[in-house]
Design brief:
Strand content: 5-15%
Number of strands: 10
Strand order of the largest sheet: 1-3
Low-confidence stretches: 6-27
Largest sheet: 2 strands, antiparallel
Helix content: 25-40%
Structural class: mainly alpha
CATH class of the domain at 9-72 and 95-303 and 369-397 and 473-524: Mainly Alpha
Oligomer: single chain
């Protein structure tokens, strides 16, 4: 079973943005524990790191203190900002997301504010663990593991924010309010170096995946640290490589995951996003959720991530609609298409789908990977969010191999991915009133092997294509477009001009960035991003 995130009252002393930019209440502790003595107990230390993980799952209306902070879903950026998806739902629902899509947001955009607030709270909680575990008397192996998890979470939060905002204020310990106004933004290169250092510390301290008990499935591992190091370096190579990275580094980190023997591709592609496949052999890192009896309002253990993307005619809100461009990207008879996208007339989770396009849908399509059986309560879905899986690592390794001249190896990896796809069943519940996996009857000629004649630029393009269809609607394509220099050309002319005006000029490709929240600019003197007021 997956471990539960538990919020610790001691860690929730602050709220707001920039690591909780509000004054601390100076009061004597009313109980026995203080921020020092609390960490002398091993169970408390585990609860503290759970509270740091908790932030990673914030989505609808949750800042851990009962305050509504709008939405925070990575698909709002990774999918909707890309060529793969439109906002969706009714035209007037969630206008801040359409503002982001068209690059006309400002510092008051509530989605941009929510990510900043949530992720800096994650940084703050991770820093509390790192600071207070230093002198804890708990058993050394457990202490090191928890420190590794804290470094991973801090690196994860900063990496999430860097890709959205650029260089950031860097905090390596809990920050007092007097320090906020003197904490300036670091450069892109400095922020990346900080993130890499955290993932490397995590790599040194964390166990492999099989080093955890079953009850701890989902915690950060050496594989997760290596995977995020590879991803961070790969993004730098395509955007701003002032840290002078190489494709050999991407290859080495990805190859170490492969050689660890901890991971493998799920046999059936159609099962990857289903509950029974959570934390399985393909999972590198995923955010943990469990269903509860809580209805609408502040979420604690469940998520609205898949509910908000589901059909408004069944039990969802209809956001994040796949585009015709993504539909057309799939090759003929690729089973992944119908496991990624569905439309009116399709049967999903045993139900005949009718999509009200265009009144409640932007494209006529919805995200099949977010469709699971309806939870028993309105908004408490138990579906984990897959953040990195083994197929992604293999494709990073293939891309690195292609850049390093190891083209045969790159083609072998591509064909491994394509073979698994060809063997997939239909999506679960593709027959009316059933929840079974039915044969796809894919012809043997589908997804033919990438042959030796595919070389150079053609091979790289084949890898980019495979990433798009293999990882479709998994919140990654925007970042791939930015780092490969294809994002701006995919935009309508008017939107392209606006996106360019909000871009940091990296050393390789321009990097479009969101506005820094207005409160952070006004209260703490942070420099606003280009083109925003």
């Amino acid at each position: 079973m997956k471990f539960k995130y538990i919020i610790v009252a001691l860690l929730l002393a602050t709220s707001g943005t920039m690591q909780s930019c509000s004054d601390f209440l100076q009061k004597d502790p009313l109980g026995q524990d203080t921020d020092v003595t609390y960490y002398q107990d091993a169970n408390n230390a585990i609860l503290a790191i759970n509270a740091a993980y908790d932030v990673l799952g914030y989505d609808e209306g949750n800042d851990g203190l009962g305050n509504y902070v709008n939405h925070n879903y990575e698909w709002m950026f990774g999918d909707v900002l890309s060529e793969d998806a439109e906002k969706g739902s009714t035209p007037g629902d969630m206008p801040p997301l359409q503002e982001l899509k068209e690059w006309r947001a400002n510092g008051s955009n509530t989605i941009a504010q929510a990510v900043w607030q949530n992720m800096f709270q994650g940084v703050y909680r991770a820093n509390l663990v790192i600071q207070n575990l230093a002198n804890s008397p708990i058993e050394e192996a457990l202490k090191n593991r928890l420190l590794g998890e804290a470094y991973f979470i801090r690196g994860y939060c900063y990496f999430y924010m860097l890709r959205l905002y650029g260089g950031l204020p860097l905090f390596d310990k809990p920050v007092e309010t007097s320090q906020y106004s003197t904490s300036k933004r670091a450069t892109l290169g400095e922020t990346y170096a900080f993130i890499e250092a955290d993932f490397k510390r995590a790599l040194d301290l964390l166990p492999e995946k099989n080093g955890y008990d079953a009850a701890d499935a989902g915690r950060a591992t050496k594989g997760a640290a290596r995977g995020y190091l590879a991803r961070a370096i790969m993004y730098q190579l395509g955007t701003d490589n002032t840290n002078n990275h190489t494709w050999q580094q991407v290859y080495d980190y990805a190859d170490a995951i492969v050689k660890s023997g901890q991971y493998s591709l799920t046999t059936n592609y159609a099962a990857i996003q289903e509950e029974e496949s959570e934390n399985n052999a393909e999972s590198i890192f995923e955010i943990q959720f469990a269903e509860s009896n809580v209805g609408w309002g502040i979420q604690r253990v469940g998520t609205e991530n898949n509910i908000i993307q589901n059909n408004r005619n069944t039990w969802g809100w209809g956001f994040n609609n796949p585009t015709q461009s993504l539909v057309d990207a799939f090759e003929a008879n690729d089973p992944r298409k119908n496991i990624t996208i569905y439309k009116t007339g399709d049967i999903v989770t045993g139900l005949l789908q009718v999509i009200n396009y265009p009144s409640e849908n932007s494209t006529g399509y919805l995200n099949r990977k977010a469709a699971i059986v309806k939870p028993t309560t309105p908004s408490q879905s138990p579906q984990n969010i897959r953040k990195m899986r083994y197929a992604d690592v293999l494709l990073m390794k293939a891309e690195a191999a292609a850049h390093l001249g190891m083209e045969s190896e790159a083609r072998t990896i591509l064909n491994q991915i394509r073979t698994r796809a060809r063997q997939s069943t239909l999506g679960k519940g593709s027959v009316l009133n059933t929840m079974t996996y039915e044969p796809a009857n894919t012809p043997a000629s589908a997804l033919p092997a990438i042959g030796a004649s595919v070389s150079g630029t053609a091979l790289l393009n084949a890898i980019y294509h495979e990433r798009r269809v293999e990882l479709g609607m998994e919140s990654l394509h925007f970042w791939d477009q930015v780092r490969t220099g294809t994002y701006m050309s995919s935009l309508p002319t008017s939107v392209r001009a606006s996106a360019m005006s909000h871009s940091i000029q990296g050393s390789v490709n321009p990097i479009p960035v969101l506005p820094i929240p207005l409160n952070e600019v006004q209260s703490w003197g942070l420099q606003q991003n280009p083109g925003y007021n």
